[in-house]
Amino acid sequence: MDGTKQVSRLRLERISRGWPIRSLAEKVGVTAATILNWETGKTLPPIDQAIELSRIYDVPVRELFSELINARKLK
Questions:
Q1: How far apart (Å, rounded) are the C-alpha atoms in residues 22 and 75?
Q2: Is 1 exposed, middle or buried (0-12, 13-18, 19+ CB in 10 A)?
Q3: Which pLDDT tens digit goes with each residue over 51-63?
Q4: What is the b/e burial string over 4-30, where b = at least 16 CB atoms within 10 angstroms of the residue's CB?
Q5: What pLDDT band is residue 4 in, cutting at 50, 70 and 90?
Q6: CA-based angle 19:36:63, to the nearest 5?
Q7: Rounded to an integer, what distance in angstroms lies between the CA atom of residue 43 and that of residue 49?
Q8: Which of the residues 23, 34, 39, 41 has an alpha carbon 20 to 30 A from that of 69?
């Protein structure tokens, strides 16, 4: 690793749409802190909310969370 932090696909999708974290949180029905935890990989969303994010972004769940899931496997 080169020491730089990888930006999650989840965060990239939100930023590419120009959505503030609070806006996405309202769409999903969670707090901004929860979205931040998901984007940083601190926690993963329950399956129903992962599916909702997939629908909102029109990106398959597997693609949306692949690097976060893989990073957790390495710990």
A1: 29
A2: exposed
A3: 999 999 999 998 9
A4: eeeebbbbebbeeeebebeebbeebeb
A5: very low
A6: 75
A7: 12
A8: 23
